[in-house]
UniProtKB/TrEMBL annotation:
It comes from Maribellus luteus. This is T9SS C-terminal target domain-containing protein. It comes from the Bacteria. InterPro entries: WD40_repeat_dom_sf (IPR036322). SUPFAM superfamilies: WD40 repeat-like.
Amino acid sequence: MFLIFSNDGFAQKSRDAEVDISFVTATAKVQPFIPELPGTLMEMSGLLVYRDLFWGFNDSGGKNVLYACDKSGSLVMEVEIENARNDDWESVTQDEEHIYVGDFGNNRGDRQNLRVYKIRKGDIQSDRHQKVKAELIAFEYESQQSFASPVNGTPYDCEAMAFYDGKLQLFSKNWKDRITEHYQLPVKSGKYKLKAGDSFNVRGLVTGADFSPGGKTLALLQYENWKIYLWLFTDFEGTAFLQGNSQCIYLKNLDSAQAEGVSFLNKDTVLISCEETKSFKQQVFLLDLRELANGTHSN
Protein backbone atom coordinates (compact mmCIF):
# COMPACT_ATOMS: atom_id res chain seq x y z
CA MET A 1 0.00 0.00 0.00
CA PHE A 2 1.31 3.42 -0.90
CA LEU A 3 0.29 7.04 -0.75
CA ILE A 4 0.02 9.53 -3.58
CA PHE A 5 0.52 13.11 -2.42
CA SER A 6 0.11 16.27 -4.49
CA ASN A 7 0.71 19.91 -3.63
CA ASP A 8 -2.89 20.48 -2.62
CA GLY A 9 -2.94 17.45 -0.36
CA PHE A 10 -5.09 15.05 -2.37
CA ALA A 11 -3.65 11.90 -0.87
CA GLN A 12 -5.06 8.47 -1.44
CA LYS A 13 -4.27 4.85 -0.76
CA SER A 14 -3.72 2.39 -3.55
CA ARG A 15 -6.67 1.83 -5.88
CA ASP A 16 -6.52 -1.84 -4.92
CA ALA A 17 -6.98 -1.15 -1.20
CA GLU A 18 -9.94 -2.64 0.60
CA VAL A 19 -12.61 0.01 1.21
CA ASP A 20 -15.09 -0.15 4.08
CA ILE A 21 -18.45 1.01 2.73
CA SER A 22 -20.57 -0.23 5.63
CA PHE A 23 -21.43 3.38 6.48
CA VAL A 24 -22.87 4.11 3.01
CA THR A 25 -26.66 4.48 2.98
CA ALA A 26 -27.15 5.30 -0.71
CA THR A 27 -25.33 5.08 -4.02
CA ALA A 28 -25.80 7.60 -6.80
CA LYS A 29 -24.41 8.82 -10.08
CA VAL A 30 -23.70 12.46 -10.78
CA GLN A 31 -24.53 14.02 -14.13
CA PRO A 32 -22.50 16.54 -16.17
CA PHE A 33 -23.51 20.15 -15.49
CA ILE A 34 -20.59 22.23 -16.78
CA PRO A 35 -18.63 19.66 -18.83
CA GLU A 36 -15.45 21.73 -18.94
CA LEU A 37 -14.35 24.78 -16.98
CA PRO A 38 -11.88 27.30 -18.43
CA GLY A 39 -8.20 26.36 -18.50
CA THR A 40 -7.57 29.11 -15.96
CA LEU A 41 -9.55 27.04 -13.42
CA MET A 42 -7.75 23.69 -13.60
CA GLU A 43 -7.37 23.47 -9.82
CA MET A 44 -10.78 24.72 -8.74
CA SER A 45 -11.13 24.06 -5.02
CA GLY A 46 -14.26 26.01 -4.07
CA LEU A 47 -17.65 26.52 -5.70
CA LEU A 48 -20.18 29.32 -5.21
CA VAL A 49 -23.39 30.15 -7.08
CA TYR A 50 -24.00 33.91 -7.16
CA ARG A 51 -25.72 36.16 -9.76
CA ASP A 52 -26.53 33.01 -11.77
CA LEU A 53 -22.80 32.52 -12.26
CA PHE A 54 -20.49 29.83 -10.92
CA TRP A 55 -17.54 31.19 -8.93
CA GLY A 56 -14.29 29.52 -7.98
CA PHE A 57 -10.52 29.88 -7.76
CA ASN A 58 -7.32 27.91 -7.97
CA ASP A 59 -5.86 26.65 -4.73
CA SER A 60 -2.34 26.71 -3.28
CA GLY A 61 -0.09 29.08 -5.19
CA GLY A 62 -2.80 30.29 -7.56
CA LYS A 63 -3.56 33.92 -8.28
CA ASN A 64 -5.50 35.98 -5.75
CA VAL A 65 -8.44 36.01 -8.16
CA LEU A 66 -12.06 34.87 -8.07
CA TYR A 67 -13.29 33.60 -11.43
CA ALA A 68 -16.93 33.58 -12.55
CA CYS A 69 -18.20 31.27 -15.31
CA ASP A 70 -21.58 30.86 -16.97
CA LYS A 71 -23.44 27.58 -17.52
CA SER A 72 -21.54 26.97 -20.77
CA GLY A 73 -18.21 27.12 -18.95
CA SER A 74 -17.23 30.46 -20.51
CA LEU A 75 -15.23 32.79 -18.30
CA VAL A 76 -17.30 35.92 -17.55
CA MET A 77 -15.39 37.78 -14.81
CA GLU A 78 -12.05 37.85 -13.03
CA VAL A 79 -12.12 39.61 -9.67
CA GLU A 80 -8.70 40.24 -8.13
CA ILE A 81 -8.58 40.71 -4.36
CA GLU A 82 -5.90 43.38 -4.19
CA ASN A 83 -4.88 43.01 -0.56
CA ALA A 84 -4.94 39.20 -0.54
CA ARG A 85 -2.47 36.41 -1.15
CA ASN A 86 -3.31 32.89 -2.19
CA ASP A 87 -1.29 30.73 0.16
CA ASP A 88 -3.86 27.95 -0.06
CA TRP A 89 -7.40 29.05 -0.87
CA GLU A 90 -9.75 26.14 -0.26
CA SER A 91 -13.35 27.25 0.27
CA VAL A 92 -15.82 30.01 -0.55
CA THR A 93 -19.23 30.92 0.87
CA GLN A 94 -21.59 33.88 1.11
CA ASP A 95 -24.21 35.73 3.08
CA GLU A 96 -26.60 38.37 1.75
CA GLU A 97 -23.96 41.11 1.55
CA HIS A 98 -20.55 39.40 1.46
CA ILE A 99 -18.45 36.68 -0.13
CA TYR A 100 -15.93 34.88 2.07
CA VAL A 101 -12.81 33.18 0.72
CA GLY A 102 -11.05 30.74 3.03
CA ASP A 103 -7.25 30.78 2.88
CA PHE A 104 -6.75 28.04 5.44
CA GLY A 105 -5.46 24.98 3.59
CA ASN A 106 -2.94 23.46 5.99
CA ASN A 107 -1.89 19.98 4.86
CA ARG A 108 1.21 19.92 7.03
CA GLY A 109 -0.32 21.63 10.05
CA ASP A 110 2.42 24.26 10.10
CA ARG A 111 0.60 27.43 9.03
CA GLN A 112 0.28 30.32 11.47
CA ASN A 113 -1.47 32.71 9.08
CA LEU A 114 -4.89 31.09 8.69
CA ARG A 115 -7.46 33.60 7.43
CA VAL A 116 -10.67 34.38 5.58
CA TYR A 117 -11.05 37.25 3.11
CA LYS A 118 -14.38 39.09 3.35
CA ILE A 119 -15.53 40.91 0.20
CA ARG A 120 -18.52 43.22 -0.15
CA LYS A 121 -20.81 42.05 -2.92
CA GLY A 122 -21.57 45.70 -3.64
CA ASP A 123 -17.93 46.19 -4.66
CA ILE A 124 -18.19 43.61 -7.44
CA GLN A 125 -19.27 45.28 -10.67
CA SER A 126 -19.94 43.73 -14.08
CA ASP A 127 -16.51 44.46 -15.61
CA ARG A 128 -14.65 41.50 -17.12
CA HIS A 129 -11.49 42.40 -15.17
CA GLN A 130 -11.76 44.24 -11.87
CA LYS A 131 -10.14 44.67 -8.47
CA VAL A 132 -11.64 44.76 -4.98
CA LYS A 133 -10.33 44.98 -1.44
CA ALA A 134 -11.20 42.61 1.37
CA GLU A 135 -11.47 42.70 5.14
CA LEU A 136 -9.39 40.13 7.00
CA ILE A 137 -10.65 37.56 9.49
CA ALA A 138 -7.71 35.68 11.03
CA PHE A 139 -7.80 32.67 13.33
CA GLU A 140 -5.88 29.92 15.03
CA TYR A 141 -6.88 26.65 16.65
CA GLU A 142 -7.01 26.93 20.44
CA SER A 143 -5.91 23.32 21.00
CA GLN A 144 -2.94 23.38 18.61
CA GLN A 145 0.30 23.35 20.58
CA SER A 146 2.71 22.12 17.90
CA PHE A 147 3.17 23.23 14.31
CA ALA A 148 5.17 20.17 13.29
CA SER A 149 3.37 17.01 12.22
CA PRO A 150 3.95 14.02 9.95
CA VAL A 151 3.00 14.46 6.30
CA ASN A 152 -0.74 13.74 6.03
CA GLY A 153 -0.92 13.55 9.82
CA THR A 154 -2.36 16.82 11.10
CA PRO A 155 -5.90 17.30 12.46
CA TYR A 156 -5.60 21.07 11.82
CA ASP A 157 -6.26 21.20 8.10
CA CYS A 158 -9.48 22.69 6.74
CA GLU A 159 -11.04 22.92 3.26
CA ALA A 160 -14.74 23.27 4.10
CA MET A 161 -16.61 26.43 5.10
CA ALA A 162 -20.25 27.52 4.89
CA PHE A 163 -22.21 30.46 6.28
CA TYR A 164 -24.98 29.74 8.80
CA ASP A 165 -26.63 31.59 11.69
CA GLY A 166 -24.45 34.69 11.34
CA LYS A 167 -21.13 32.82 11.48
CA LEU A 168 -18.76 30.88 9.28
CA GLN A 169 -19.03 27.16 9.98
CA LEU A 170 -15.75 25.32 9.40
CA PHE A 171 -15.30 21.55 9.18
CA SER A 172 -11.83 20.09 9.48
CA LYS A 173 -10.00 17.88 7.01
CA ASN A 174 -8.61 15.59 9.68
CA TRP A 175 -5.63 13.65 8.32
CA LYS A 176 -5.02 12.06 11.71
CA ASP A 177 -8.15 10.01 12.32
CA ARG A 178 -10.73 11.03 9.67
CA ILE A 179 -13.06 12.53 12.31
CA THR A 180 -14.16 15.97 11.17
CA GLU A 181 -14.43 18.67 13.83
CA HIS A 182 -16.77 21.65 13.65
CA TYR A 183 -15.60 25.20 14.41
CA GLN A 184 -17.47 28.52 14.34
CA LEU A 185 -15.76 31.72 13.17
CA PRO A 186 -17.25 35.21 13.61
CA VAL A 187 -17.58 37.28 10.43
CA LYS A 188 -16.29 40.50 12.00
CA SER A 189 -12.69 41.46 11.19
CA GLY A 190 -10.24 40.41 13.87
CA LYS A 191 -8.20 37.45 15.07
CA TYR A 192 -9.87 34.58 16.85
CA LYS A 193 -9.01 31.37 18.68
CA LEU A 194 -11.29 28.58 17.56
CA LYS A 195 -12.43 25.78 19.84
CA ALA A 196 -13.89 22.62 18.37
CA GLY A 197 -17.56 21.92 18.98
CA ASP A 198 -19.22 18.73 17.81
CA SER A 199 -17.44 16.13 15.71
CA PHE A 200 -18.35 13.19 13.46
CA ASN A 201 -16.53 10.15 12.13
CA VAL A 202 -16.91 10.73 8.39
CA ARG A 203 -14.24 8.07 7.73
CA GLY A 204 -12.54 10.30 5.21
CA LEU A 205 -11.16 13.73 4.36
CA VAL A 206 -13.68 16.57 4.09
CA THR A 207 -13.09 18.96 1.17
CA GLY A 208 -16.27 21.03 0.93
CA ALA A 209 -19.41 22.17 2.76
CA ASP A 210 -22.66 23.96 2.02
CA PHE A 211 -26.13 24.44 3.47
CA SER A 212 -29.31 24.05 1.47
CA PRO A 213 -31.50 27.11 0.89
CA GLY A 214 -33.29 27.58 4.19
CA GLY A 215 -30.47 25.86 6.08
CA LYS A 216 -32.21 22.56 6.83
CA THR A 217 -29.53 20.33 5.28
CA LEU A 218 -25.74 20.41 5.61
CA ALA A 219 -23.73 18.75 2.85
CA LEU A 220 -20.13 17.66 3.44
CA LEU A 221 -18.06 16.43 0.49
CA GLN A 222 -15.26 13.99 1.23
CA TYR A 223 -12.91 11.44 -0.31
CA GLU A 224 -11.07 8.33 0.81
CA ASN A 225 -9.30 5.55 -1.11
CA TRP A 226 -10.06 7.03 -4.54
CA LYS A 227 -13.77 7.19 -3.67
CA ILE A 228 -15.96 10.30 -3.37
CA TYR A 229 -18.79 10.57 -0.83
CA LEU A 230 -21.39 13.16 0.11
CA TRP A 231 -22.68 13.30 3.68
CA LEU A 232 -26.06 14.95 4.30
CA PHE A 233 -27.03 16.05 7.83
CA THR A 234 -30.63 16.96 8.67
CA ASP A 235 -32.92 17.43 11.69
CA PHE A 236 -30.18 19.06 13.76
CA GLU A 237 -30.82 21.44 16.64
CA GLY A 238 -29.23 24.89 16.53
CA THR A 239 -25.69 24.57 15.23
CA ALA A 240 -25.16 20.97 16.39
CA PHE A 241 -25.20 19.94 12.73
CA LEU A 242 -23.20 16.76 13.15
CA GLN A 243 -25.56 15.46 15.83
CA GLY A 244 -28.52 15.35 13.46
CA ASN A 245 -29.63 12.52 11.20
CA SER A 246 -26.98 11.65 8.65
CA GLN A 247 -26.85 9.96 5.28
CA CYS A 248 -23.74 8.98 3.32
CA ILE A 249 -23.97 8.83 -0.46
CA TYR A 250 -21.29 7.07 -2.48
CA LEU A 251 -20.87 8.86 -5.83
CA LYS A 252 -19.91 5.81 -7.82
CA ASN A 253 -18.98 7.46 -11.12
CA LEU A 254 -16.51 9.87 -9.50
CA ASP A 255 -13.89 7.27 -8.60
CA SER A 256 -10.41 8.82 -9.03
CA ALA A 257 -11.84 12.34 -9.25
CA GLN A 258 -10.43 15.21 -7.23
CA ALA A 259 -13.74 16.63 -6.05
CA GLU A 260 -13.31 19.64 -3.79
CA GLY A 261 -16.19 22.10 -4.20
CA VAL A 262 -19.85 21.63 -3.28
CA SER A 263 -22.80 24.01 -3.55
CA PHE A 264 -26.56 23.67 -3.47
CA LEU A 265 -28.13 24.91 -6.69
CA ASN A 266 -31.55 24.59 -5.05
CA LYS A 267 -33.01 22.50 -2.23
CA ASP A 268 -33.07 19.36 -4.38
CA THR A 269 -29.86 19.76 -6.37
CA VAL A 270 -26.19 19.71 -5.36
CA LEU A 271 -23.31 20.81 -7.59
CA ILE A 272 -19.84 19.28 -7.19
CA SER A 273 -16.70 20.70 -8.80
CA CYS A 274 -13.66 18.65 -9.76
CA GLU A 275 -10.11 19.69 -10.47
CA GLU A 276 -8.24 18.48 -13.53
CA THR A 277 -6.70 15.02 -13.12
CA LYS A 278 -5.62 12.22 -15.45
CA SER A 279 -9.15 10.82 -15.21
CA PHE A 280 -11.27 13.98 -15.36
CA LYS A 281 -11.32 17.42 -16.91
CA GLN A 282 -11.93 20.39 -14.64
CA GLN A 283 -15.72 20.49 -14.50
CA VAL A 284 -18.92 20.68 -12.46
CA PHE A 285 -21.32 17.78 -11.87
CA LEU A 286 -24.93 17.71 -10.68
CA LEU A 287 -26.54 15.38 -8.13
CA ASP A 288 -30.36 15.25 -8.02
CA LEU A 289 -31.25 14.45 -4.42
CA ARG A 290 -34.80 13.46 -5.39
CA GLU A 291 -33.39 10.31 -6.97
CA LEU A 292 -31.93 9.05 -3.69
CA ALA A 293 -33.47 6.40 -1.51
CA ASN A 294 -34.12 7.43 2.08
CA GLY A 295 -31.63 6.33 4.71
CA THR A 296 -29.90 7.54 7.85
CA HIS A 297 -26.79 6.66 9.75
CA SER A 298 -26.33 7.36 13.45
CA ASN A 299 -23.24 9.07 14.81
